[in-house]
Every structure is written in C-alpha cells, then in structure tokens.
Amino acid sequence: TAAAPRGSGRTSVWCARRRPRQLMPAAATHEGTKRSPEVAEVPCAKRARGDVAIRWLRVGARTQHHTITVVVVNMAGVEVVRPTLSMDSTVWDVKRKVSEATGIPPWRQQLLLDAQILSGAGVLADVGLQDGASLSLVVSSGSKVVTASGDGLAKVWCSSTGRCLQTLKGHDDCVRTAVFSPDGVEVLTASHDGTAKLWHASSGAC
User: Fold this and answer.
1) Is the pLDDT of residue 14 over 70?
2) Which of these ranges, 97-106, 129-138, 178-187, has the smallest mean pLDDT?
3) Whole-angstrom distance, CA of residue 49 vs CA of residue 57
C-alpha cells in the first residue's frame, strides 16, 4: 500500500493485484472510506487462496470415494450386470456396460432409479446414486412405430420397412392416443368412445 503526503487532506489507498500486476486506487476521506464507483473490489490473496481451497474441497468431496458399484436389473427383477465405475462416470457409461453384457444398444436403454428416468449425460455422483444402488433397465421397442387414427383403429408399423405389423381394432370411435409401454411389449390406446385399452403389440390381443 502507499499513502499520499501529509497535509493533502486526502489519502489514496492502493491495492496490488497478483495477475496482472497493476495498482488500483480507492478513494478515502477523513470521515470514512469510500470506494470509487469505477474501481472494482479486489479480494486479498488470502481470501482468494481460501476460495480456491473451498473449490478443491468440493471437488474432493465428490472424488473421495473413487468408485461405485450399481446393480442393473430387468423388468422381471433379474440381475443383468453389476458394473463398478468411477464416481465421475455418467449414466451413459452404465449403458455401455449393459450393452457389453446384453448386446442391447445404449440408445434403446432407459435406466430408472426409483421410477425416475436417468439422463444419459448425468454424472453418477450428481444423480443420487449410492454404492450398491439398483437400477431398472427398460428396453424401448426401437424398430416399431404405433399410430392412432380417426377410423377407430391403431396400427403398429415397422419403422425400417414401413410394413404394418398389427392392426388394433376394438374402439367404437376415433383413437386419440396410442403409446408403447416402456418395454415395447404393450400398446395403450385412448379413444373418443370414452375407453382406454391395453393391447399386446405382437399379437394384437386386447
């Protein structure tokens, strides 16, 4: 710090930055200190070092337990795979392990934690997973599309060939909505006739 000569009636206080090296003035009067409006506050080096330490502690808290083991089960409750991954791995990394064990592409997989679908980009340490957590695996139909129509029909199609695989007939009015179940085995339809029906996607049985 540096001060102006005595008798000037005004004192200038200088605070040095570490990066880049420059001096920044702050105006002061005998009645009290007042920061110049055009001058930004510069935290002291000790405060800055403390902030860095806090940030490192936060990162360290995540990586203190370096690995986590999760159990992936199918809809029948049968274990599919039990991978051990680092805490900074993502849900997508779990899907890759499932793909290696089952051959199911990651893009057809949905992993659920307590009925909550986990985002593929989610970091394991941030999505609430703990060591030994159980994830439910849901496999999407992938190559099938279901449509609803005003003629009272819903149809299941092959997305690659465009061929109709199944016609779901049974509603008395136009079908407003048709959706696959998470595993792609069943189709749920809702109609203007006031009913909803659950169908087997392959056989067409209601």
Assistant:
1) no
2) 178-187
3) 12
